Structure formats: structure tokens, C-alpha cells
């Protein structure tokens, strides 16, 4: 059996922009989910050195290489993420900040993966840790869902954006909403408004024009796109409503950040 490999690299907070996340990766031996002593110590050191005042939440995702059937690899990837989560919690990391723990199963190899097959597979047997920076927008405004929310809290999701004049969800936005759907399925008590926003529109217009429909309802259509996507991911429609707020609430961070959707908590 090959000796396990660990690459556990974290980049300084100073390198992160408003949209970036700090990422760590733990690699595993073939068909194993145990974390050996060297890897465990690296995770422990990470927890001890981490400035938790800068961390809003952590997401843990597990993967396997392409060998074996889907069901077996899904379970193996779940065991891997739970092994890493256990080390984090046992060494003092706040459990409530670990908002997603998900095994994703196999990572298929394609012609564009690059490198030798053995190298590709070794990199696919892993757990990724995604760390979300602490919200910097003020009280009641967050950049991810929290363990507890108050009515009136706003969740501004940094990776849900739209192209200019469009209400169509981008691939990146759908990936972010997939994560949000998992969180909402575990927080069934929360009810919320989905609020769409636009940029680049004169003040005398309440909304912008949606290129696809030719209607001046772009912010509404953006919120509706998120609403329909969450329904497709089994979030109960009775928990949420959607509305368009036009260009009334700029974040002051640039046009691309105003082409967005937020969640507004109405019941907790």
C-alpha cells in the first residue's frame, strides 16, 4: 500500500477578496478514510492557528477516485468528511460553524485532467475544506447562513451573481445554490424572502429591463429564478416568496455586486 500523501496548504487572509474562500485539502490512500497521525496533526495545527474571529463558516466536501461503484464511493466520501469533521470538533473548532458536511462520491477522469492516471487519482481521493470569511457588512447582514438567525437578517451570498441584463442563473450561481439548498433542508424552521437587485439603472426607473423577456422586471425575474431553482432542489415553496427591489440598495462595491440576490429572514 502506498504511503498516504498530505497537502494541506492555507493562504493568508490578506490574499482573499470579498468573493474568495480559504481552502485546505487532505488526501487519502486508496479505499481508506482513516486520517493518519501526520495528517491529523496538520488539521490540529490548523485549528490552533486559525483566527476564528475572521471565520464565518466552514464547508467540508469529500471525494473518491473513479474506481468502484457509485454507492460505495458515496459512502466512502461521507466517511472521509466525517473523519475530518471529527478532528476539527475534537480540537475545539465550533461545530455550529461547520455548515455543510457532504460526501460527493467519485470524481471521473477525463481527457482534460492532465498528468498521469495515478497522480490524478491520488488528487481525487481527498477532503476539501472551504472557509468563508466573516461578514464585513455590519450587524444583521451576513455572507452565509448562520446557526441561528433573527427576523430581519439579510444573507448576501457572494457567489450568486448575474450577467448584465440577465436573470439566467450562471453555472457558478447554481453551484452556490446547491449548497444553500442543503443548508435550508436542515433548517426547515426558517422562512425568507428572496430579493433581487440590479445595477446601472437611472434613479427614475424602478427596475431594469430583462433582455430575455423585454420587461422592466429584471430584479423580480432574478429573484424568481432563484425561487424556482430552490424548488427544483426540494426546498418547500411555502417557506419563501420572491420580490424585486430594483436599484434601491447598492452595496457600494461595484456594479457586478449589485447584480445579485439576497435572502431576508421573515421567520426563524
From TrEMBL:
InterPro entries: Bact_OuterMem_StrucFunc, OMP_bac, OmpA-like, OmpA-like_sf. PANTHER family: LIPOPROTEIN YIAD-RELATED, STATOR ELEMENT OF FLAGELLAR MOTOR COMPLEX. This is Membrane protein. It is found in: Cell outer membrane. Residues 15-135, 151-268 form the OmpA-like domain. The keyword Membrane applies. Keywords: Cell outer membrane, Membrane. Its main location: membrane. CDD domains: OmpA_C-like. Pfam families: OmpA. One of its GO terms (cellular component) is cell outer membrane. The keyword Membrane applies.
Amino acid at each position: 500500500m502506498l504511503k498516504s500523501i498530505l497537502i494541506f496548504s492555507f493562504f493568508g487572509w490578506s490574499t482573499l477578496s470579498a468573493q474568495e474562500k480559504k481552502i485546505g485539502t487532505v488526501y487519502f490512500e486508496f479505499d481508506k478514510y482513516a486520517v493518519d497521525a501526520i495528517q491529523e496533526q496538520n488539521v490540529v495545527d490548523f485549528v490552533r492557528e486559525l483566527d476564528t474571529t475572521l471565520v464565518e463558516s466552514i464547508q467540508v466536501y469529500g471525494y473518491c477516485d473513479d474506481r468502484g461503484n457509485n454507492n460505495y464511493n458515496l459512502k466512502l466520501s461521507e466517511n472521509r468528511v466525517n473523519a475530518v469533521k471529527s478532528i476539527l470538533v475534537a480540537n475545539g473548532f465550533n461545530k455550529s460553524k461547520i455548515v455543510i458536511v457532504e460526501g460527493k462520491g467519485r470524481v471521473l477522469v477525463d481527457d482534460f485532467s492532465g498528468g498521469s492516471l495515478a497522480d490524478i487519482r491520488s488528487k481525487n481521493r481527498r477532503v476539501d475544506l472551504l472557509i468563508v470569511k466573516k461578514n464585513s457588512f455590519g450587524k444583521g447582514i451576513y455572507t452565509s447562513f448562520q446557526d441561528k438567525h433573527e427576523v430581519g437578517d439579510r444573507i448576501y451570498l457572494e457567489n450568486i451573481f448575474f450577467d448584465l441584463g440577465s436573470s439566467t442563473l450562471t453555472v457558478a450561481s447554481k453551484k452556490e445554490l446547491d449548497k444553500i439548498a442543503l443548508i435550508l433542508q436542515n433548517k426547515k424552521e426558517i422562512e425568507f424572502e428572496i430579493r433581487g437587485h440590479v445595477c446601472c439603472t437611472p434613479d427614475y426607473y424602478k427596475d431594469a429591463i430583462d433582455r430575455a423577456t423585454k420587461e422592466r422586471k429584471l430584479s423580480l425575474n432574478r429573484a424568481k429564478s432563484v425561487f424556482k431553482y430552490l424548488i427544483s432542489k426540494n426546498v418547500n415553496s411555502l417557506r419563501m416568496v420572491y420580490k424585486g427591489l430594483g436599484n434601491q440598495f447598492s452595496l457600494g462595491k461595484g456594479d457586478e455586486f449589485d447584480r445579485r440576490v439576497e435572502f431576508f429572514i421573515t421567520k426563524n
